[in-house]
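Researcher: Before we compare anything, I want clean individual predictions. No alignment, no superposition, just each chain on its own. First chain goes here; please echo the sequence and then give the structure tokens.
Model: Echoing the first chain and its structure:
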Amino acid sequence: MNIQRTVGFALLVGLCQSLLAQQPAPDPKAQRTAVEAELKAAIREVQRIVNQPVRQLTRMPNMDVSIYSPGWFHEGAAKPDFNTVDVRTTQDVSYGKNQYISSDLNVGVVFVGTEVEFNPMTKYFYADYSIPKKKLSEAEMLEINRLYRVIGKCQKQLTTL
């Protein structure tokens, strides 16, 4: 019985190898298209996570509000090293020292300081500099790290294709 299984397994392996050998080499254009699609999907997902809306409250006269000026962020952003950066280590949650925060761009609106962050290694993907960014959870930052590795891998593949 064991000999039959071994022979059957060997025949199956041989058949699979034969079928693989008959497969045509991947088309470089199709490979490039697939890698570009994977890259774009990873970028879209990073953008979705990083640009989540932050809860906004109407400013009331009794609120102690810290105002940031001019605006929330300066223009421009460093491109992260997608292969190595850990966005957990660059997360700045110093807004949390204030109960309510706002900026000269958001008159009449406040944000809860503990719900906001700045991260220079995700700023590259900020879509709107006129509003603060939602504080990301550990799971969201781990997902961004994973997506950054995908982006790095795809960028490397595109340079070799």
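Researcher: Okay. Second chain, same rules.
Model: Second chain and its structure:
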Amino acid sequence: MIVSFSPIQMDDTLTVSRHSDILTINGDTVDLSVIPDGATLPAGAIDNPWIVGPVQRIDGVLHVTLLLPHGDFPSLAVAWPTPITLTGNGPVAVPHDPAPQEADHGND
């Protein structure tokens, strides 16, 4: 499976896990096993707001595009993420920036 990302500024977070042709996206299970080789399913046909492009199976490999939320000043890796190839099952390492640290003002 190849996952591409479409960055968007928003306060949400994205968590993804894979089990074969099934993605769990922020707790919502999406079964993509019904897509045959050579077929394309429009994003609107999938009841998940995180999938934003058509889902295709090309030469047996699923191609999926997901929204990638980020803050005000994303790093280059988040603003222009490269697609990732998933070969195993389990949690997906979604590109992200570390949470901003709050300044320690001590006893003002």
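Researcher: What stands out in the second chain?
Model: Residues 76-79 form the longest helix (4 residues). Additionally, The chain has a mean pLDDT of 92.
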